[in-house]
Amino acid sequence: MNRARLAAVLRKELIQLLRDRIMLFLILYIYTADVLMCTFALSFDVRNLPTAVADFDRSADSQRLIDGFGASGYFSIEHWTTREAELGGLLNRGEALAALVIPPGFSRRQAAGEAAAVQLLLDGSNANTASVAQGYAQRIAQDYALERAQRAAGQPARLAVEHRPRIWYNSELKYAYFMLLSMIAVAGMLVGVITAAAGIVREKESGTIEQMLVTPVRPAEMIAAKMLPTLLVGLTALFPSLLIAAWVGVPLRGSLALFFLFSAVFLVSSMGIGILVATFAETLQQALLMSFFALFPILFLSGTLVPVESMPWVLQYLAELSPLTHYMEALLGIFLKGVGLEVLWHPLAIIALISATLLALSIWRLRRRIG
Predict the structure, then answer these.
(1) Which helix (H) or strand (E) segment is 78 a member of?
(2) Of the chain's two ends, which shows fewer C-beta atoms within 10 Å, N or C?
(3) Number of C-beta neighbours around residue 366 at 10 A
(4) Residue 271, domain extent
(5) pLDDT per residue over 128-174, tens digit each?
């Protein structure tokens, strides 16, 4: 690789990228506004779930249970009814997503030492919300039963088995931490793939790539010159994302230098995908469609939306081929766990191997075009 040729082509690419204000704005937007919006919008936490109550017991005990649901912050008591048929209408119209039904004799059964049941109806059209709400309701009911047992005994109730969970790395279980890191990873994938693909295809459409092909510039030098400006801008755009992470409260327990090392190698792999796409596409429209064709499987199999462990075993093996899967593992390790390269060398090696493979395929494809 000739340094003089590479420096000349690199200078041309850098000037071209810095003059493209729309592209610079989009890169900054993806790393900031998109990251911020998705962090707060894409949350699986359930808060203030619209809830209807049908209290057929109308006792102090039933009211105490209802107060427990209302004070939890997970359920918002918005509808009261004395007709069980009305609950179906509220759920059908979406005015309530949960309904608590307390049958007659609820308080009397407890006073007699008998088991007293209540019914919780959930709108299962959103399975995740219903599942999370069901877990919250079970916890509220358990707390109510324990409190009532303490009042009946006149002293704190003692459990046969005391459950004391201890949560590491994210003790408050803030889903925003995971989502923000996921969005930073997804932003790097989008920026790398789309900008690299668009950069080469734009040269094809304008005809300038034909001029470059008749120069002494080699395919490897052309690809390196295309990648380095995007890599520089992409790493610079990470600084606003870090400020957003600090504002949200995401801890950075590991090495900042290691974060940038992983980000650089990951951006190279995502740009490798974009360049490979560009060697097949002839127009910008084709490049964008092919980029999204490649992006969606990578995003879905990366663990940024659902855990890889919950996927069928075939998809779990396919997820190992995604650089985003290993980059996400590294981000969680660096930010939340504070581990170093002695633990994260394996994902770094895999991302580097994927990057090298993609770049080798891109250079081979470009050489075929020259030939």
Answers:
(1) strand 75-80
(2) C
(3) 22
(4) 3-42+171-370
(5) 778 888 888 888 888 888 787 776 665 555 545 555 667 778 777 77
